[in-house]
Amino acid sequence: xxxxxxxxxxxxxxxxxxxxxxxxxxxxxxxxxxxxxxxxxxxxxxxxxxxxxxxxxxxxxxxxxxxxxxxxxxxxxxxxxxxxxxxxxxxxxxxxxxxxxxxxxxxxxxxxxxxxxxxxxxxxxxxxxxxxxxxxxxxxxxxxxxxxxxxxxxxxxxxxxxxxxxxxxxxxxxxxxxxxxxxxxxxxxxxxxxxxxxxxxxxxxxxxxxxxxxxxxxxxxxxxxxxxxxxxxxxxxxxxxxxxxxxxxxxxxxxxxxxxxxxxxxxxxxxxxxxxxxxxxxxxxxxx
Length: 288
Ligand code: KIV
Prior knowledge:
By secondary structure, the chain is an alpha/beta fold. The protein folds into 2 domains: 8-242, Alpha-Beta Barrel (TIM Barrel); 247-279, no CATH class. The protein is 38% helix and 13% strand. The chain has 11 helices and 8 strands. Helix 2 (33-41) links the parallel strand 1 and strand 2. Helix 2 (33-41) packs across helix 4. The N and C termini lie far apart (69 Å). The mean pLDDT is 95. Bound molecules: 3-methyl-2-oxobutanoic acid. 3-methyl-2-oxobutanoic acid (KIV) binds next to strand 6. Residues 29, 48, 50-52, 90, 144, 187, 189, 210, 220, 222 line the site of 3-methyl-2-oxobutanoic acid.
């Protein structure tokens, strides 16, 4: 693990076609200071402050209500915790779709106020001009195609993308246009693995899969899925490495039980006056 800051050039270099020795990129989401510190210590290359934070930490039903202020708040907490990983902040729904000017202003906030190194935007060919404008303004952009939660009606649920040859061809075209516009990497979400591999082989920038099979140049997962800290649902593509919800609930139950029984606080958690001062205390009076 390198101790210096991971750069956009480092990420671009993690493409086997550019560098046969390239190791797969490791990315995970984080939304606050302590988790960002742990992700850095674990050696991840990229921390993504995803708008998924709106669901797993703020309790929204989907990512659509997430605001720029909330993204800046989460991003600045994350950026205060880490030095080495590349930090990518998600542009929330309607922060970039309206106009390139609005996209530039909001992406600038994630960099200036949130401390992010780059931003991520969902969408294919239609957003190539936005990617181009942000890149020209000096804000590196990560693309995101395949399943794009911001523009999928909640009622439609999670649907795997790129399941036909025609859909694959269209996604390959999207990826090529994003790369041409300057995207330094592209997230492929919930996409048939054959299509994800074909996209990966068609572009010169790394692809980062989430539910897109093993053929991508890297993987990203939502932290709360990895830790088992979000009980509402776990997508089939997410692997749980811990059951932290049960562990945390168990700890709070033990605390509650010890408070009730008087076992907490113990002597080791208690402060005392000097014994002489304690002698001078007025004796307790009973309320009338
Ligand atoms: O918001 C998020 O966490 C994401 C990942 C699913 C890539 O966009």
